[in-house]
Amino acid sequence: MKKGLLVLFLVTIFSVSSLFANGLSLNSVGPRALGMGGAMVGLADDPTAIYWNPAGLAGQNSSLYAFGTDIIPFGTYKANSSDFGYPPDYFVIDAKTKTNHYASPNLFANYSMGKLAFGLGVFVPAGLGAEYNGADLIPISAGDLEWMSKIGVIDIAPTIAYKINDMFSFGVTGNIFYGMFDMKRPSIYTDTLGVSHGFQYSESSTGTGFGVSGGLLCKLSEMIQFGVSARTEIKVTMSGEAENALMSFMGYLGTSDFDRDVAWPLWAAFGVAVKPMENLTITADAQYSQWAKSEKEFHTDFKDPYWKAATATTGDDTFVLDWKDCTQLRFGLEYMASEKLALRAGFYYDPAPAPDSTLTILFPSSTNNAVTAGLGFCAGKFDIDFGLEYIMGKERDVAKYPTVGAPENMPGKHKLDIFAFSLAIGMGLM
Hints:
Number of strands: 20
Number of helices: 7
CATH architecture: Beta Barrel
Strand order of the largest sheet: 1-3-4-5-6-7-8-11-12-15-16-17-18-20
Number of domains: 1
């Protein structure tokens, strides 16, 4: 039974490791927003208003807007044996993420009826992942095993917006989330002789959740307007199967179905857009995410009776995250070089919500500074937008934090930079 509890403890560690990072909520939905640092709440004058501030949909012309976004993370993890409590220079780790592309298609449509507008968005508001070369992590894997994570959400978002008068507009969006999560990493067992053995752990799950967004725009003058927007917490019940070769090796059932409730946090934002001259727009946003409530802890409900009983007895079916609330500061500008050409730039500051005590390499969390740029070109009924950003993550030097009732973190130096770009084509319908 003691060995079985150890196995289930390891299974829990490797099935509920940090699911979220500040990278999970995509920083800029739409290439125009991406090029302007994601400071769109006070402007919201293109079809992606469905995401940023649904009030902005009112007053727009009917249109279709399709774009693709590619996110490319570049992570490193450096550690040595002393970080894990072993004698110095017993082993050294210098690992890099594989250069993977996390690409997503997105579609927005809106139909204008004068003051009233209807919209529908099908897009990816959240997603990230990481994959390491197992050979670089053998000292802590006890074998050349896979380390991989990939998480994403598709949002189906029907929207209605109404322009009350020349000053005020409001809008409401329903958010139907479909979440997907896959992970592979080692599961380690130490025998009575003190020899460690590595076995492959993997899991895959999907789930759905529902929420609501709302927004308000106030146009004070031709020069300045501001907006407020908020999105409710969205809980997604993920259901899937966990598999661990170590369980089979120990003579137990090697797989178990499971359910796990995860949540995207309440999000609220205030933004302002200023037009100091006819061809220049400057935007600024403060965007708040209530991580502390949504990512305090996760509970995993294993369906196999043995897994369920063992983890309930030890408390290993609950993983403590203890994330903190964070506010992003975003700035952007758009300069109309001509009637057909727009030049864009932006910057944002994104603090890390995850504490050192729960940080892992598969879902890194860092304090980020990002620079962005983009351009737009109008050709009759068609608009072409392009945006790119480079996110510079601050290196984190993390100490070892064993936590009762939760997995240990991964000590060492964590670093993550991200490059992303997005390309769109829009077509006016009226």
